[in-house]
């Protein structure tokens, strides 16, 4: 039964990939971005960490295999994470609980995979936060511009993955959507802005034609600072930057490097507007059907893998920024006053209020717990 499901999903993924290939040959925008070219110094893979020994007696339990899927490309942070997670789950349970991992969008795009997880066709999905907002509206708290920018990774982790009111609300929101959150991978790295215009101050963003994801909150933010947001399929971004249809785009440093955007963009501006964060979620019914020992093993493996991979995200971010600078991009950094000026804009304040009202005050809870 499970094999038939995998075959059907794989065929669907192959068909989707074939269609996508018709649109161009540039790398896909992934849940976590592609790593730099092999000639560049790469961050050590998360899978290099020593696997744990089995930590309990699972011999009386039936073998269980869970299908895990994402759209991350080869070498991406989320791919490294999920491969390491699969190894840790296998080692902890002595091979009794296993993860069948499909990356690179093999089983579908982000929205497809989330729907398939809700329906139980696959068991676990990994993704960035933005595509999840359509399914779990409360995740719009991650769209609050620069809300995480003043905090380090440990503080953010304590709120997102720890015993916080924010975390409890997130669990309830996921479960209302037929999902159960397994964890959030971040270490205070952010989405940045590439451009052929030197974005030296807030005024420089006026009239900037910037490609964004199709997310109403993201678009509202760029409009509020004077830019002209343009949703565009990722496969069209490189050529659109090259021919001047758009002036700029925004992404994490590893996405920029993986797509070779330094070939068509001069500047990398550290706008730090959205936290670069990936999440894993399991189908709620599947989670509740797992033996408690398997639930505990999966949580243990998640905690171990988050600790290991989280520590490497800073290195991945900095190494990609360095590689882009060496290939000719100019880095633009901002003082705190730049972010304060943006957050004081009426349009940005209105966006904060609008998002907070839509999520029942969860945005305020998040801000208060980060500030503690």
CATH class group of the largest domain: Alpha Beta
CATH topology label of the largest domain: D-Maltodextrin-Binding Protein, domain 2
Average pLDDT reading: 87
**Largest sheet features:** 6 strands, mixed
What is the CATH architecture assignment of the largest domain? 3-Layer(aba) Sandwich
Question: What does this 3D model show about the protein?
Answer:
This protein folds into two domains: 2-13 and 61-187 and 277-315, Bacterial extracellular solute-binding protein, family 7 (D-Maltodextrin-Binding Protein, domain 2, 3-Layer(aba) Sandwich), CATH 3.40.190; 190-275 and 321-371, D-Maltodextrin-Binding Protein, domain 2 (3-Layer(aba) Sandwich). It is globular, with a radius of gyration of 20 Å. The chain has helices spanning 2-21, 77-93, 110-119, 153-160, 165-176, 216-224, 237-243, 253-258, 284-289, 292-326, 336-343, 346-358, 362-371; strands at 64-69, 97-102, 124-128, 179-185, 190-195, 209-212, 228-231, 248-251, 267-275, 278-283, 330-332. The strands form two sheets. The chain has a six-stranded mixed β-sheet. The chain has a five-stranded mixed β-sheet with strand order 2-1-3-10-4, with helices on both faces. The N and C termini lie far apart (49 Å). Strand 6, helix 6 (216-224) and strand 7 (228-231) form a beta-alpha-beta unit. It has 372 residues and is of the alpha/beta class. Residues 1-28 and 30-49 have low confidence and may be disordered. Helix 2 (77-93) runs antiparallel to helix 10 and helix 6 runs antiparallel to helix 12 (346-358). The chain has 13 helices and eleven strands. Helices cover 43% and strands 16% of the residues.
